[in-house]
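Deliverable D4.2, example record:
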Amino acid sequence: DDFDIRAKLMALNAEALECRAAAVQLQQESRMVLTKATEMAKRANDELEQQTLELKAQQEQIERNRTAENERHVRLEEERQRLKELQQKQLEQQQQQQQQQQQERLLAMAKSQAHEDEFANWLVRDFMNDNHYPACIVRTSPDAVSMPINVNYLIVTETENLLDSQEELISTPLNIKFDFITNRQQFILVAIPYIVKRSSHRENVIKVRQSNGVWMSMETNEPTFDSHKEKRFVECKLPESSVCAVVSRLKRDKVLIENQSS
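Output generated by the structure prediction step:
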């Protein structure tokens, strides 16, 4: 009987050990499952939080894009309106400039016609095709048909102080000598060809050097000559022998505006 009891006790101890081992294994597996479940829950929470942040960032970006697009449309509309106003202003300025140029052309034509009518019977002395003289055309009254006229090139040193600010020399400077007292000639007309630099803001005038060395602008006219239709001339009255040249300068109203602006 003792042997049977001992055998049963040993069997029970073995079963108890197996149960304990199984319990330990179950406990370990439970811990592993719990740890894994905790990790999965944490990962799920992290992913949910990340998705929430990404969704919020996307919504904020969409809102920023919408705001930027609205601002871009506003800027485009403002720029379109500004360009429209600028084009309208430029168009008005062009129309005003064209009207002014047309008025100037009409006045110049009227002045030129009156000038030509006044001196239609004056004699023409053409120095255009003689290489010994600077190119020009001189007109004298019929009473001075025999009056000697000398036209010579001007040396460079004698052109000192010719040009003022914003002026350009556009002709060959020349020296004209004549005896107006002996021939009872109050003045002669001298027409000087020039290099064409036409601008609506500039004008071409003849400047004459005075006895004190100061160059003075003369009242000028722009005649045409049938024998030299391809040339452009500026003409003025010379009451005495003179040194003269054609210069291009800003019109007086343009100079006045610039001086006021500065």
